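User: For documentation purposes, I need each entry recorded in a consistent format: the amino acid sequence on its own, followed directly by the corresponding C-alpha cells. There are two entries in this batch. Please keep commentary to a minimum and don't merge the entries.

Assistant: Recorded as requested. Entry 1:
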Amino acid sequence: MQPRTPPGGGRTFGPDAQPGGGRRKGGKRGRKNFVDQDAVQANIEKTLAGMKGGGGGRKRGRSDEPSYRDIIASRTAEEKEREKTRIRVNEFISVAELADLMKIPANQIVAFAFKELGLMVTVNQRLDFDQIELIASEFGFEALREEEYQADVTEVEVDAEEDLQPRSPVVTIMGHVDHGKTSLLDYVRKANIVAGEAGGITQHIGAYHVALPDGREITFLDTPGHQAFTAMRARGAQVTDLVVLVVAADDQVMPQTIEAISHAKNAGVPMVVAINKIDLPAANVAKVKQDLLQHSVVLEEFGGTVLHAPISAKSGQGVPELLEQVLLQAEVLELKANPDARAQGTVLEATLDPGKGPLATVLVQRGTLRVGDNFICGKFSGRVRALFDERGNNVKEAGPSIPVQILGFEGVPSAGDTFLSVADASEARDIAQKRQRLEREAQNRRSARGGTLEDLSRALKEGEVSQLPIIIKADQGGPAEALADALAQLGTDEVRVDVVLRGVGQITESDVLLAKASGAIIIGFHVRPDANARSAAEREGVDIRTYRIIYEAVEDVRNALEGLLKPEEKETVLGEAEVLELFKVSKVGTIAGCRVTSGTIQRAAKARVVREGVTVYTGEFGSLKRFKDDVKEVREGLECGIAIENFNDLKVGDRIESYRLEEIKRTLATSASESQE
C-alpha cells in the first residue's frame, strides 16, 4: 500500500508514519485527510498535561499549577518529616529523659542550658515545659505537651433502648448531725451501725443495699451530717437518684440541713423529707414544715412537689410509709440500666485494710461486675479478685445500683474516681502506669518548688502570705478529702493552709521526710505512725498529731493559724504637750520648753511631733526634765523640757504626743471580718 499525500499539506499518513514526520509518543493515526493534525496534537498535549500534572514541554496557563494528587503527596511527605522532629513530653521529665527522646547526648543539653539559658542543670534534674520547649527548638525538635490522663480507654457505648432494664434506686440520706440519719438506716437494715462510729457520729460514707419484704430493693448512701463533710455529701448527691432529707421534729432547719438542700438541688435530684423524732414531747412538725418553706422546699400539702413523711427512727413509726414514697418517686423517674454492658461505676470510699490491702467501695451504675474482670480506676488498674457486700459477705457479681467492696487494686484510689472494667488488661496497665508516672512527677515538682527564694519574693509581692503546710493521712479517702476542705476554709487573705500531701494509710517514714523538706506538720486521722516514722519524727523534729474526731483536728489547726497571724498593734495616746520656747544647747541639741496640755508625758513611751495637724516625726524621747532634774513622767498642767532623739527641727507651736503601742493577738474571725471590710 502506497502512502497518500493529502491535499492540504505535505504530511504523509500511513500505518508506520506519525504526524509531523516524527515518531511522537501519544500521536494518533488519521484517516481523514481534511483534519488539522497540528490542532489535534496540541489539544492532546494540553489535556495530558492537565491530567498528569506534567509531561513534555513547557506548560502555559493553568497547566503550570500542581495537581491535587501532587499537593496531597507533598503534604503527606511534609507531615511525615515534621512528625520525625516532634517529641511528646509531660511537664516534669528530666534532662536524661529529654536527651533520650531527642537521641542526643545529655551533656549537650547541660552545656546549652548553662551557656544560653543560664541554668545549671544536672542529668537527673527535672525541667518545666517552658525550658523543655526552648531546649527542643534549639536542637530542631518541636515539643508537644502531653496532658495528664490523655490516653484513656475507649468511650462507653450508648445503650440501645431494648437493652435497658429497670434498676433499684440509689437513695442518699442527708441532714444535720444528730437528726437521726444513721438511726433511720439502722432501723431499715436491722443492724446497729451507730456503735461503730466514733462519738456516735458518722465519719465515713456507707453504702448499703436493702431488700424489702415485698422483694423490691433500695440502695442507701449514708453521708455524715457535719459541715466538715460538705464534699462527701456533695459526692453522694452526684451519684444518687433521690435524696431523703432527715429533719428532727424537736429541732429546726440547721445550716447543715440547708447545705444538704443545696446539694440536692444542684445535683438535680428529687427530694423526700423525713421529719424524724415525732415521738418526742418537744416535737413540732408544723414548725419544721414552715422552716422548710423558707428554703424553697414546698411540701405536697402546701401545693408543692416534695413528698414527706413523719417518722420515728427509734420505734419505726412511719418508716414503711417513707419507703413507699421513696419507691413511688423512683417509679416516676423510670430508672433503667443495661446489665449486660461492661461495668462502670464510681468510687464512694477507699481504704487500706491491714489484712486485705487496698479496698474500695464502688457503686456499680451500669453493667455487671464479676470476679476476674480487669479494670481501670483513676491512676490504678487491677483485676477483681473478690467482691464483698456491706456486711463482708462474698458475692460473685454486682449489677446496676449495687454497692460492693472490691479487692484487687494495686493502690488506694481516690473517692470519686470513675471505675471502668476493660477487656484488655495490658491496655489498662499501660494507662495506669502513665497516670502514676505523671502524678509522681507532678508531686516531685511540687515538692521541689517549696522553700525557694522565688517563692518567697512572690509571696511578699502578694502581700506576705503566710502558709501552714500540712500533710494529711487518714484511714479512708473520704475523711482525708473532707478534712483538707475543712482546713482550707480556715484560711484568710493573710494566712492559709497548704495541704502538701493527702493520702490513705499509715504514717510512714517517707511522710516524715516530706514534712521535713516542706516544713509541714503531719495530721493522722484514725491512723498512727509506725516505729520508723516515730523515730524519724523525733530525729528530724517533725510534729505528728493524731485524731479520732475531726472537730479536734480543725480546732488545733485553727489555733496554729491564729499563731501565724501578725498581732494587731493598738495605739494608746498617753499625753500631749505644746512647745512654748526653744533652747539651743551645745552638744545636746534643741530643747523644747513645753506645757503638758493633757494626760502625762512618759519618758519610756514613743514620741510623735505634730505640726498643724500633720505628723512630721516619730521616734523616741531623748530626755525629759523638770527644771534640772531628769524625770520619768510629767503630768497635765506642768511645764517640762523635752528633747526628741535624732530630731532638732522643733518649732514653737508644735505638739508633742506621748503614746504606747500594744500588740493584741488576732484570731481568724477578726482577720476574716477585716478582710471583708
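Entry 2:
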Amino acid sequence: MLEFFRKYQRYFFVFISIVIIASFSFFGTLSTFSNDEKKEDRVVAHAVDGTPLMLTEIQALCRFISTDREDALGFGLVPNLCNDGVVRYDLLRTGLADLLAAAYFETIKKDIEARLDRARRFRPYAHSAVPLLSAEAVWDRFLPAMKRELASLKQESEAGLSTFSHLSRLYQQQSYLNAETLKKILFFQHQHLGLQIDPGLQHSDLSLFGFHTLADWFGHDFLTIASEFILNAAAVAEKKGYDVTLEEAKGDLLVQFQTSLQKLRSDSGQPEIPFSQHLRSLGFDEKHAAEVWRKVLLFRRYFQGVSQTAFVDRLPFKDFALYARETATLSVYQWPPALRLNKIEDLIQFQLYLSAVAPPCEDPLDLPIHFYSPEAVEEDYPELVQSSYLSKVKEIALQQIALRAQIKEVWDWQLEEKNWDALKAAFPFLSQGCSREEKFQSLEKLSPPQRLQVDSYARLRLMDQHPEWTEEAMASAASQERTISISKASCSLPRIEKPWRLRGLLQRVAEGDEQAKQELLAYTDDEKTLYRFEEVENHRSPHILTFNDARVQGLLARLADRSLSAIYAKIRAKHPSKFQSEEGSWKPFSEVKMEVARVVYPDVFRAIEALEKRSWTDDLYAQCRLLPATQMAYEDLRNNPDASSWLAKEKTEVLEDQFKLERNEQPIQRTSQEEWMKEKAFFMNPNEWSPIRVPPNGELSFFYLIDKKPCANPVLDQISFGKELIAADAQLYLAEKLLESIFQNRSIILPQEGDR
C-alpha cells in the first residue's frame, strides 16, 4: 500500500491542491460578500496628513500581507502569491519592525508572551526509536543559525523586545527550510536508513511552533500596527508627490503573481491558477487588490526614494582601495613544516635524528649532506629503516569469531575433565572440583570479570576446533588496500608485536614464496587479532625515514625518551649536583630530561648561545637552531636566487632534500594577515630582500620582493556596500521621524476586538 502511495504521490498532491484552491476560491469569495453585507465601515483613526483610515481598509491590508509567496501551501493556508514579502523584507529585514515593536510594545506584549510560552513548550519532531532522526538534527546540519536562535528564544526569562527580535529572525530563517522541505529530508533519511516511514511524521505539521501566518507569529495586533504604519507612510508619500495608479498597481500584482507561480511550478509542479481566481481565494477582486497594493507601493517608494538619494562619494573609497588593495608579489623562502622547530622537545628529536642518520658535521649547527647507509642506521635504530608494501588486508578480532560458540557448547567444554585441568592452569582462582556439579559451582561463584575471562578462553579453544568459523568470518570481512610501512621494530598496522617476522614474510611473498603466502592468509602476533594479506607487492625497498615521517609516526619521541633515559642511567653518577634530589635519591628522568639533553648535546647548545648575547630559554634554543643555516642560504640565494643547493625539488626521495628551503610565490595586500610581510614589503622597493625573521613558532623565513602594483579592481563593490549601510540608516531615521508624527496625531489606533 505504501509503495502505491509513493508511486502516485505526485498525482495525489496535484489533485488535493486543486480541491483546496477551488474550495478556498468559493468560500473565500462567499465570506467576502458576506462580510461586506454584515459589517459597516467606520473611521478608526486619521493618518498624519489628516485623511481617515477606514476599518475595511485596514482589515483588507492586514489580510493581504498576512501571507506571502514564501509561505508553504497546506494546513488550510493559501499563500498570497501576489505578495513578494512586504513584512518579511520591508519591515522585518530592514529593522523597521523592531522600531514598531519598541514603540507599541505594551500593546503587543500579551501576544509576544503567548508566543514565548508556545516556544518554551514546543518540541520539534524526533523519531521515537532513532533520536538522531529528528528536526533538530536536520537544522543542525543545514541551518545551524536557526537552531541557535531557537535555543536563545527558549532561554528568554520574560517577554521583551529581544523576544520579538528572536521571533523575527526565526520567521525569516524558517523560510530557508520550510516545513515541507524538512519533511522531505526526513522521509529521505528514513529511506536511507532502511526504516519504515514513521506514521506520525506523515501527518505531522513540522512548521516551527505550528505557526503559519504573520498573525500566528506576532499576533493580530502587530499586523494591524504594521498595516496602519504602511497606510500612514502611503499618505505621506502622496502628500510629497509620489504617485502610483491603480493600473500600475494591478500590473505589479500580475508580475508578482507570475513570478511566484513560475517558482511554484518549478518547485512542486503546481497546476496553473488564474490570477482572478487566486485573488478570489484570498477574498479580493482585482480592483480591491489593486487598491490595497497601491498603498504598499506608495509606502515602498517613499522609503526607497529616501535610501536611493543617499550620496556616497567615490573619492574616499577610491583612495582607500588604492591603499588597502595595493598588491606586493613576493618569493617567500622558508623551511618545510617539519623543520619549523618551536619547542625544546623538537630540538631534542631533531638532534637525535641527525646523530642516527648522518655523521657529525664540523660545525654542530650545520645540516648534513652525507648520510649513513640504511644497513648502518638499522643496527642501532631499526625503527628508522622501513620498507613499504601494498596489500589487500582483512582484519578481524578472534574474540568476534569465537562468539559463534553457543553458551551450551562453552559450558560443556569447561566441565569436561581434560579441559578443566587446562582451565585451572590458566586461571588459578578456580577451586578444585572433581564432580561435574562441583566444577559448575566453582564457575558460578566467579565474579563477572573472572567469568568473562574464563568464557573467553573457552570460546577461543572451541574456535580452534572449528577452523571453518575462521574461514567464514574472513570470507565475509571487508578487504582494504593498504600501504604497510614496516621495520624490524615497528609497523603501521596495529597489534603487530613481531614486526621483524611480518616483514620477512611480506618480503618473501613479494618475491613469490608460496609457503609465506599461505602463512599470511591467517596471521596473528597477539593471539587476539587475525590478519589476512593478499596480493602483496613491494612498494619501496628498505630506506631511511625522513625527519618528518619519523615524527609523524611518533618514532622520534619514543626513541628520544629511550635513548636519553639509557644515557641518564650512565651519566648521573658523574653529575650528582644536577640529577640528585635533596633527599639524596636520583630524580625521575621526566624531571631532568632537558638537563640530560644538555649533557648529551653540549656543542649544539653552546653554538646556539654563541649566536648572540641574550637570555636563552629552552624553547628559544629550538627556534634558533636553524638560524645559521638560514643565514647561509640567505647569502647564497641573494647571489643566485635559483641556487639548487638550497632549494628543494618536488616529489624527491633524496634524503638530503628534506633540509632544503621551500620557495613559494605569494601575493599579499595591506589587508592580508601576514603582519610581518606587510610591515616590510610595502616599505621596500622591488628587487629587494627582506631580513630574516625568527618568530616564536620557529618558522624562520625571508622573502624577495618581485614587484608592487596599485589596486586594479573597481571600487563599485565598496561604494555599493557603503551605500547600503547609509540607505538602511536613512530608512530607520525616516521611520523614527514618521513614528513621532504618528504619535503626535494618534494615527495608529487598534480597532476594538469586536470589529476585527
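Summary note for entry 2:
The first helix runs from residue 2 to 7.
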